[in-house]
Write a structure and sequence with these properties.
heterodimer; A: 333 residues; alpha/beta; D-Maltodextrin-Binding Protein, domain 2; ten-stranded mixed beta sheet; B: 524 residues; mainly alpha; MetI-like fold; 2 domains; 80% helix; globular
């Protein structure tokens, strides 16, 4: 009989999360790297007593697995909050009617360019698209250097079909228009720009002096420098008439019909707070706070000191879907 | 409850848990926007990429099978039939890559041959270009898969060698040396076993996800996972699984026609087997096996241990992962227990042929075992992701369903072999005395096959513990296992922590193997 009780107990233990709903908990799907997001979520648990139930993404799906799971669960939502590692995914969820608006009090002070005007997503702690360059005197300082003959066969960038590189290309299409952007892409091809599998690989290729420079995420560059590698980080196009550099904030989204909406809002408030931004700036991801005046380490620039590309992320998301076929063809050169 | 009813209920539950999700997935893929459409399938045949994937998958599985048989049969003969010293240690070492999650080996080799790896550190960065070219792509994936699948052929060879009647070999020895006896008698007799092992290796390599995805070699299981998870193209994910499904059906038919009777009718010989004395060749063969074991097993494991050899890494890895470790053990235990129950009745059905369709249930189990876990995972989401079935979808039950679908074939076959070694007379005597079915199960069958049940439980437990493909796709919030945790932490985590987690994973997987060794060592 004891064995039977044990077996029934085990069964209840296993299925209990599926039938519980009244606990102090919040379900969050996360595309940000686990190694950086997990400590923040643990702090939230400690500070509020609300249990976090996370689903993390993997690099293998180019960090889109969690978003796609949210789409699959549209009619049976399991998550309360989605922590995206860039705003494009948050915008896709808005377009598909999976998120609902929430304007958090913590979002005050975050520049309007980095948040949805209706509150469907709010950006925080950003990465910048920066150059990592091998320790050379004559370093590139503009994305136009990708098509400069001086750097022929010496530049590398991550596969534009995935991740932040896609967003960067799409933003160029938005800012420059299709014709100029396509011309730029073709010239990159002619100039022998090498395509790597990821920003991480691009960083390694530059660290190993196999290539002179690459556009990568700022966290990749900062980590390489912190690891003592002989490389430099350069924010491109920072002169007065320059294009500026693309900023890609994390974005947080409240999911429509999630089981713990109230706690979901509390988590969003927590993630958008200056304190969370400070923690993410000092962590290895070295992310740039979007609130002004937040402490940062010496190697992380403050947002007010960066000339950024003035781009509408909704338009970038739309353009990104439009240029998929072009990018597929382009990457096979 | 009667015997037939119990077995029918088992078959019904297995079909609902395992087969219905796959059928539901297939049916769903035939509809686009609510209308019947074969668009995904027509695109499949038109796409050059799909043919490329099909070629890659078959070439990888075929090459892995060819090389493992080429290496595994001689090694099996060395370990099973000769006086080579340290045989048991070699066998245990060779089995390790099979029982730990496959991608762990890929990670270890990356630490060795990668751009910032050990080889690059020793011989300069120029060599890294060569080692990276070897590691990433076909050659590296093949190398790692061979080291994972090799023990399957070794163990089958050893097992089937024990089934040869020694009198046949004695008679053949009158006409020639051992090489002649092996070539003319022993190997032809164990050929069905070798073919069966080759078939299993082919299936394992065909459905493998972890190694090709880590080493960036495009095959169908990786494509299905990416189509579903990265692009949420459900129909494309399903369509890309269909060629694999057809190949697996073809394999099943071949196995049914050519191998099943030959492989299940053999029994262990009562007489002790004839041993081959290696004579002067013994030290050379011993050194050769040592070197080979070092390259395929010891080096990658040593790299992981070396990489993780800092206390803080273990402390951090263990503290952060304790929940995942507990969940891994809990789910693998629950999964193994349920799968052994299914295997007990389905194995009994297979051995006693209680119904005409006994082989059909086994074929379904083998079919599901051969399907990539990612496909089963997508099928489970398709079927159970509804409000009415949320108690399944949002709990660990969905993971257990995945385990049952994928691994029941193992328990069914193991239990069928166990039942074949047990005399039916005791059960028949009890039946004549009108002892009920349930009492016969608990009072006679279970005690008779107790050792087989324990061994089967341990084997299935290990497979559930190392599972990544299914769990990665279906795990509900806060239900990640250690295998999933490692996979999701790999991006940007310190290498020391990843290596420490891999070592912890290997240790908790090897612990039951050690127990299995204790259970079976006396039989050997």
């Amino acid at each position: 009989m004891k064995r039977l009780y044990f077996f029934i107990g085990l069964c209840l233990l296993i299925i209990s999360p599926g039938i519980s709903s009244a606990k102090e908990e919040v379900v969050v799907y996360i595309s940000e790297d686990r190694v950086f997001s997990e400590p923040i979520l643990r702090d939230f648990e400690k500070d509020t007593g609300i249990k976090i139930k996370p689903v993390y993404d993997t690099e293998e799906t180019k960090s889109t697995g969690a978003m796609n799971r949210l789409i699959a669960e549209k009619n049976n939502p399991q998550a309360d909050v989605y922590w995206a590692n860039e705003p494009i995914r948050a915008i896709v969820l808005k377009q598909r009617g999976i998120s609902i608006a929430y304007i958090s009090p913590s979002s005050e002070g975050i520049p309007t360019i980095f948040k949805d005007s209706q509150g469907y997503w709010t950006g925080f702690s950003a990465r910048a698209r920066v150059f990592i360059v091998s320790d050379e005197k004559n370093a590139p300082d503009s994305i136009m250097d990708y098509i400069d003959k001086q750097w022929k066969n010496r530049a590398v960038m991550a596969n534009p079909l995935f991740g932040t590189t896609t967003s960067w290309i799409a933003s160029l299409f938005v800012v420059w228009g299709d014709e100029k952007a396509r011309d730029f892409m073709e010239k990159m091809k002619t100039n022998g720009v090498k395509i790597s599998t990821s920003n991480g690989e691009s960083t390694t290729l530059v660290v190993n002096k196999e290539f002179a420079f690459s556009l990568v995420d700022s966290d990749d560059a900062v980590n390489a420098i912190r690891a003592g590698k002989q490389v430099k980080q350069i924010y491109p196009d920072q002169d007065k008439n320059g294009l500026g550099c693309l900023i890609l904030p994390n974005a947080v989204v409240l999911i429509k019909g999630g089981p713990n909406q109230k706690n979901g809002r509390k988590l969003i408030d927590y993630l958008l707070s200056p304190e969370t931004e400070r923690k993410l700036a000092f962590a290895d991801c070295a992310q740039i706070p979007l609130h002004k005046g937040v402490d940062t380490p010496a190697d992380v620039k403050k947002i007010e000191d960066i000339k950024t590309i003035n781009v509408n992320y909704e338009m970038v998301a739309k353009k990104l879907q439009e240029i998929q076929q072009f990018l597929k063809k382009w990457t096979k050169y | 409850m009667s015997k037939k009813l119990t077995i029918l209920i088992t078959i019904f539950l297995f079909i609902v848990i395992g087969l219905v999700p796959v059928i539901a997935m297939f049916v769903k893929s035939l509809f686009v926007g609510g209308h019947f459409s074969l668009e995904s399938y027509s695109l499949l045949f038109k796409s050059r990429q799909q043919w490329h994937l099909l070629f890659n998958s078959l070439f990888l599985a075929g090459s892995t099978t060819f090389i493992t048989v080429l290496l595994g049969v001689p090694l099996g003969i060395l370990f099973g039939k000769t006086d080579l010293p340290g045989k048991k240690i070699f066998i245990i070492l060779f089995v390790i890559p099979l029982v730990i999650p496959s991608y762990i080996l890929a990670i270890a080799w990356f630490y060795c041959l990668g751009r910032s790896g050990i080889v690059s550190g020793l011989f300069g960065r120029e060599i890294a270009v060569v080692t990276l070219n070897f590691l990433f792509g076909f050659s590296g994936t093949l190398f790692v898969l061979v080291s994972i699948c090799l023990p399957v052929v070794i163990i089958f060879t050893i097992t089937y060698l024990r089934m040869i009647n020694p009198k046949l070999e004695e008679a053949a020895k009158l006409s020639g040396q051992w090489f002649f006896v092996l070539r003319k008698i022993s190997i032809p007799i164990i050929a069905p076993g070798i073919f069966l092992s080759a078939l299993i290796v082919f299936i394992l390599a065909l459905g493998e996800f972890g190694v090709p995805s880590s080493l960036r070699f495009d095959v169908f299981p990786v494509e299905s996972f990416i189509q579903f998870s990265a692009f949420y193209d459900f129909n494309a994910a399903t369509a890309s699984a269909m060629p694999l499904g057809l190949i697996i059906l073809f394999i099943l038919v071949a196995e049914r026609l050519f191998l099943r009777k030959k492989t299940t009718q053999m029994t262990i010989a009562k007489e002790s087997i004839l041993k081959i004395s290696l004579g002067k060749a013994k030290p050379f063969l011993f050194i050769a096996v040592c070197v080979f074991t070092c390259i395929t097993v010891v080096v990658p494991l040593a790299i992981l241990v070396k990489k993780s050899f800092v206390l803080w890494a273990y402390k951090e890895a263990f503290i952060g992962s304790i929940d995942s470790i507990i969940r891994s053990l809990l789910y693998a235990s629950a999964g193994a227990t349920l799968i052994v129950v299914f295997g007990f009745f389905l194995g009994y059905l297979l051995e006693h042929r209680t119904f005409r369709f006994s082989y059909a249930a086994d074929s379904i189990a083998i079919f599901l075992f051969a399907l990539p876990g990612t496909i089963i995972g997508i099928g489970l989401i398709t079927l159970w992701n509804t409000r009415a079935t949320n108690f399944i979808y949002a709990s660990a039950v969905i993971i257990l369903f995945g385990y049952i679908a994928k691994y029941t074939a193992l328990s069914t076959r193991f239990m069928a072999v166990t039942f074949s070694q047990v005399s039916r007379s005791m059960e028949e005597a009890a039946q004549i005395l009108e002892v009920g079915w349930i009492k016969r199960v608990w009072g006679i069958l279970v005690p008779l096959v107790r050792k087989g049940l324990i061994s089967t439980w341990l084997v299935v437990f290990i497979f559930c513990l190392r599972d990544l493909d299914i769990t990665m796709i279906v795990y509900p919030p806060a239900h990640d296992t250690l295998a999933v945790r490692i996979f999701t932490l790999m991006a940007n985590s310190p290498e020391e922590i990843i290596a420490a987690l891999c070592v912890i994973m290997a240790l908790i997987t090897l612990l039951p193997l050690f127990i299995l060794g204790l259970v079976t060592i006396k039989r050997w």
